[in-house]
Amino acid sequence: MTVAKRNKRVKPDPELVKLADSLLANYQKPEDLIGENGLLKQLTKMLVERALETEMSEHLGHGKSEAVTNATGNTRNGHSAKTLQGEFGELPLDIPRDRQGAFEPKLVERHQTRWTGFDDKIISLYARGLSVREIQGHLEEMYGTEVSPTLISAVTDAVSEEVKIWQARPLDALYPIVYLDCIHVKVRDSGAVRTKAVYLAIGVNMGGHKEVLGLWIAQTEGAKFWLQVITELKTRGVQDIFIACVDGLKGFPEAIEVVYPKAAVQLCIVHMVRNSLNFVSWKVQREVAADLKTIYTSLTVEMAEQTLGAFEAKWDKDYPSIGQSWRRNWERVIPFFDYPPEIRKVIYTTDEIDKPLGDIFMSSVCSAIAVVPRVLWVAPVSILRTAVDRCARPARRQPVPGRVRSSGCKRQPCLCASRAVPACRIATPGRAACGRSALDDPMRTAHCE
User: 49 lies in which domain range?
Assistant: First the structure.
């Protein structure tokens, strides 16, 4: 068994240790270090200003109070005051100037008023659904710095322009694999949070790397909008697609074939299985899922057809809609059988999109979406907060202990919140009603009113 070695602890420079000890000689409480006028802020100011003086000396070719050595005769010309905003709050600085106005500082650039990374914090807060006023209050509370609403709007507008440029960028002429899927997210729109469909296209380029081709927002998912998306990919330079991996949305494959008639359309097997399990009682879901797996893990199309026939013979009596669904979509299910197992694993599901969105927006944008600069801006909201509308396997419904149910309900044999359907809904305080009983249900009693 190989035991990973621990990283060796790097010993600090003894001179730096002595310096730190001397600086902290009068330290008594946290405010002395990280307070408004604490040591950390003073030290940051001193280091930044000394670094700027060094940059000026390099620019002029001579140090302060030294003889002028440059050919133009340029010299220092005092300082200009500037206040930087950042995680440390507001930091007043004295920026050195030269007489010819040719000095371009690198550490704190001209017209820079915010420390590096401060804009990203504003964007991150806005992406999580905070309003401009909420961001303003958060920054003041956390960092002790006042940021005007105009500044926040300017930062977000600048990023919006970046996204527009990214969204219209030219694409490669050929993508062997393109995943097309849609998720539903909560988006702040005109002061209200609404659910919108975010269309995503992720391509695998000729180098084998994933690339986000685009993000589009609409009210709902539909084949008509997908046709617009695919047409846009064509106009941006994508001349051909070998394999398009999609979900089972009606009319979706036909929309792809209108623009890319030679592309092979592969339905997402995972979506097919999940949709099939929607028809199945939880008691046999595991068994049905195992039988479905034997279909799409077959070695050849012929073996898959035989396995599907065996599945229908076993389950059609109880769940005929499953076999009918697979037969109806069979031509879109089988394209991945033309490829070796290594390729099949890549193209049989659009979860290549779902996986990024589950993790990406939980951090910043996953491996597939990390190439997009600040792509969260396109859907500035709580995708990071579980707003991804995944197709999930039906949850196993368990009775909830401690809950009360109607004593007069004739469905007494059925446990409330049970796996049986129809089943009584738990009684609410003050109204012991069978919430799932239809008005014309013969098992409904007066007690349920």
Answer: 14-62+77-112
CB < 8 Å & 24+ apart, contacts of 252-259: 252/180, 252/223, 252/226, 253/332, 254/223, 255/223, 255/224, 255/226, 255/227, 255/230, 256/180, 256/226, 256/230, 258/227, 258/230, 259/227, 259/230, 259/231, 259/233, 259/234
What's the pLDDT tens digit per position in 409-430? Answer: 444 333 333 333 333 333 333 3
Q: Which residues pair with 93 in a beta bridge?
A: 82
Q: How many Cα neighbours within 13 Å face the side chain of 207?
A: 4
pLDDT, one tens digit per residue, over 358-391 is 444 433 333 223 333 333 343 333 333 333 333 3
Which tokens go with 202?
């992720």
301 shares a domain with 429: no
3-state secondary structure of 444: coil
Number of CB atoms found within 10 A of residue 357's CB: 25
C-alpha to C-alpha distances, 84 to 43, 93, 149, 187, nearest whole angstrom = 15, 7, 17, 32
Which of 333, 354, 385 represents a domain boundary (last residue)? 385
Is 435 a residue whose pLDDT tops 50?
A: no
Q: Is residue 324 part of a domain?
A: yes
Paired strand residues for 89: 86
Whole-model pTM: value is 0.56
Question: Does residue 71 lie in a domain region?
Answer: no
Q: Are residues 325 and 291 in the same domain?
A: yes
DSSP state of 369: T
The CA angle 318-322-324, to the nearest 5 degrees, is 110
Give whole-number Cα distances, 128 to 217, 266, 283, in Å: 17, 34, 40
The reply to whether 352 and 419 lie within a common domain is no
Q: Could you give the number of structural domains in the chain?
A: 4
Residue pLDDT, tens place only, 273-287 = 988 998 888 899 999
Q: What is the mean pLDDT of the chain?
A: 72
Residues 130 and 278 in one domain: no
Region 138-145: what's the mean pLDDT?
Answer: 67
Residue 314: count of CB within 10 angstroms of its CB? 14
> Is 70 exceeded by the pLDDT of residue 102?
yes
Would 378 be classed as within a structural domain? yes
Residue whose C-alpha is closest to residue 152's, from 136, 128, 138: 136
Q: Is residue 448 located within the same domain as residue 406?
A: yes
Residue 48 lies in a domain: yes
Residues 206 and 282 in one domain: yes
Please tell me the predicted confidence (pLDDT) of residue 360. 41
